[in-house]
Write a structure and sequence with these properties.
The protein is of the alpha/beta class. The chain has helices at residues 49-61, 84-100, 113-125, 146-150, 168-177, 198-207; strands at residues 5-12, 15-22, 31-36, 63-68, 106-111, 132-136, 155-160, 182-187. Helix 5 links the parallel strand 7 (155-160) and strand 8 (182-187).
């Protein structure tokens, strides 16, 4: 059985979104994953090296992986919205992934800006959300990590030890403040883009394996008063 690769468009809130779906080699998918790319205004696309490596590692684990371009990138319609609109783009693509693989568990993943989008989307989905979130190169220097704090899903963070947008000491402090289940993997990259360590990065993602649906649901936060 050869690997299925399909390019298509997803109907997004600002128009069509360019998407690429890939299934694992030689086996039927046992999980489905959506991977979000880095900042569109800084060259981020679905073909970014870290995004490509993330997708390939997840396929190695047995996932069907959907990558897509945010609004305004390449063949996707619309213009960059600074974050909120991109979360809605991801929501539309996540819904399409769920439609195509309704019986499989789901993972949301992203790199850099895409990690923030994945975390924000997962935080908004509640019971309809993914089993886990994989956030690579999560940026902390902008101070926008409220969704990471309130997210009630298992999270895996993969960070470069020399990430200029998520400095190690600052990121460790954020991570230590988060509830579990959680996991942090440090990769000895030269910068935010895991330069010099992309093979190690890919192996780290692949080593996560498939999400275990038998894992108990995390506790809900106490209602605010």
């Amino acid at each position: 059985m050869s690997r299925r690769i399909e390019s298509f468009f997803v109907a997004g809130p600002a128009g069509r979104l360019e998407a690429l779906l890939e299934e694992p080699d030689e086996v039927a998918p046992r999980e489905a994953a959506l991977v979000c790319h880095p900042h569109p205004l800084h060259g981020g696309t679905l073909h970014n090296k870290v995004v490509h490596r993330t997708a390939r590692a997840l396929r190695r684990s047995g996932c069907a992986v959907l990558r897509f371009n945010f609004r305004g990138v390449n063949l996707s319609h619309g213009v960059h919205d600074g974050g909120p609109g991109e979360v809605e783009d991801a929501r539309a693509c996540f819904a399409e992934l769920r439609r195509r693989y309704p019986a499989l568990p789901f993972t949301l993943a992203g790199f850099s800006f895409g990690a923030r989008v994945a975390v924000s989307l997962a935080a908004s989905l509640e019971d309809a959300g993914p089993g886990r979130v994989i956030a690579a190169g999560f940026p902390t220097i902008y101070g926008e990590f409220q969704d990471a704090i309130r997210l009630r899903r298992p999270r895996v963070f993969i960070q470069s030890t020399n990430d200029q947008f998520g400095p190690r000491q600052q990121f460790q402090a954020l991570y230590d403040s988060l509830w579990g289940p959680k996991q942090l993997v440090w990769i000895g990259g030269r910068d935010h883009f895991f330069t010099g360590a992309l093979d190690n990065f890919e192996d780290a993602v692949a080593a996560l394996g498939l999400w275990n649906r038998s894992e108990p649901a995390p506790p809900r936060p106490a209602p605010s008063t």
